[in-house]
Amino acid sequence: MNYVIGVDIGTQSTKAVLVDERGTIVAQHSSGYHPDTPKPLWAEQWPTVWMKAVVECISRCVAKAGEAGVASNAIKAVCVSSLYGGSGIPVDSDMKPLYPCLIWMDRRATAQVDAVRANVDLERLYAITGNGVDSYYGYTKMLWLRDNEPNVWANTRFFLPPNAYVIYLLTGEVAVDHSSAGNIGGVYDIAKRDWSDEALDMLGIPATMMPEHLVESSDVVGGLLSQWTEQLGLEAGTAIVAGGVDAAMATYAAGVTRAGQHVAMIGTSMCWGYINQSVDAHHGLISMPHVFNGLQDIYVFGGAITAGASVTWYREQFCHAEIEAAKAIPHGDPHRLLEEDAAQIPAGSDGVMFLPYLMGERSPVWDAKASGAFVGLSLYHTRAHLYRAVLEGVAYALQHNIVAGRRGAKSLDDKLIVVGGAAHSDLWMSIIADITGFPVYTIEQDVEAAMGAALLAAYGTKLISQETARGGWVTLIERARPDPARQSMYAERFGIYTDLYPALKPVMHRLQAK
């Protein structure tokens, strides 16, 4: 039997899963950390944190598999998925990092967004890239480094996405997968599947900073260097497969490889996306080549910056009683205690509504100065009301993206697949079904992007057929169906949700003014 490892470098943890060629999980491991947020709306990470976590996760998986009788020479490949690395890691000619990676959550490049809007032919940029202008995109973050860190800019040889940097360390080869390249935004030609010299010239970014070698997510970039064999427990020469952006990888893990299928990945952030063969930037969503069949298919998605992060923020700031109570219960989880109370609250949270814009917002709002809000509070409301309102607010944000996405999708399947940490919550799955109107399905196995990476590792090394790679390994289970009465009520409330941001936008911006 042959085996592969899928690795997913996330915003708050790295996960690895070791499976056989039928997708059976033999071992898995995760390692947690937090991004650095030195200033409001800043979010960055030194790549050494990611590499340390990757080494730990792979080595622990290999060790656990060894205890189960799996020989190291039976592990044929490793594939690395990663969070969207925003700017990428600026490295010098010796491939040493010069500055932390400005990750997807970072929104500091507001002045650069204004400059692009004022000085660049936006319609041409939209046509080339299929993407818009926002501080979410990596190219605006690159311009921030150019304008604010001139020494870093002057010495930058390449900007490398997190998975590409890790793969370079493992193999000595520099390559960027198409999904990561496309998600940078304004520097990638979505039709040609290549860097755009025209767009780079418009933006003033040297083309030489973009690594020449672009690869498909299933391509083998190189073999594992011998210097890693002892630490990782793998054989020298083990194939290292390119991987891609985690949202697309989690979508692929759910078996989504054809037009119309759609998935919501709800972890720290929320990404809802579908497969298409064309894209229009005017619909306000993000596009990149898909991680499977990426030379033909495009992964189109929109998302909320703080989805699970909103839940974590609320728990850590306001729910100390539940946190302490959970400690007294074997395997206690404060989220479960909060969910039990919130489940007793009527749908609609007795008039409380939450805007989950705690780090500005992505699609379809696209406003770095948007801010979070509870609206409709009274003395009657409790922590349970607010917790349910947070879950509902993220679900409204999901529906906001689905409504925007329908304008560009040829069709959408009649079921919504949800992956990520949110899938552990029965209440949240029920709320999402009621607000979106879709039956909600989740993956039976407790893995997402890491399983997608493992599947690509097996496909890239020809351990599985294209048919298997297209269908995937996971099993979907139905979790919730929309209740007609609640769906009708939420549809009315969704209108209020979409009215809130335009009404509050002037006040939000005044509060953000320096």
From TrEMBL:
Out of the domains of life, which is the source? Answer: Bacteria
Under SUPFAM superfamilies, the record lists:
Actin-like ATPase domain
Q: Which Pfam families match?
A: FGGY_C, FGGY_N
Going by the UniProt record, its keywords in alphabetical order are: Kinase, Transferase
UniProt domain Carbohydrate kinase FGGY C-terminal: residue ranges = 264-459
Q: Cite the InterPro entries for this sequence.
A: ATPase_NBD, Carb_kinase_FGGY, Carb_kinase_FGGY_CS, FGGY_C, FGGY_Carb_Kinase, FGGY_N
Q: Which GO terms describe its biological process?
A: carbohydrate metabolic process
Keyword Cell membrane applies: no
Q: What is this protein called?
A: Xylulokinase
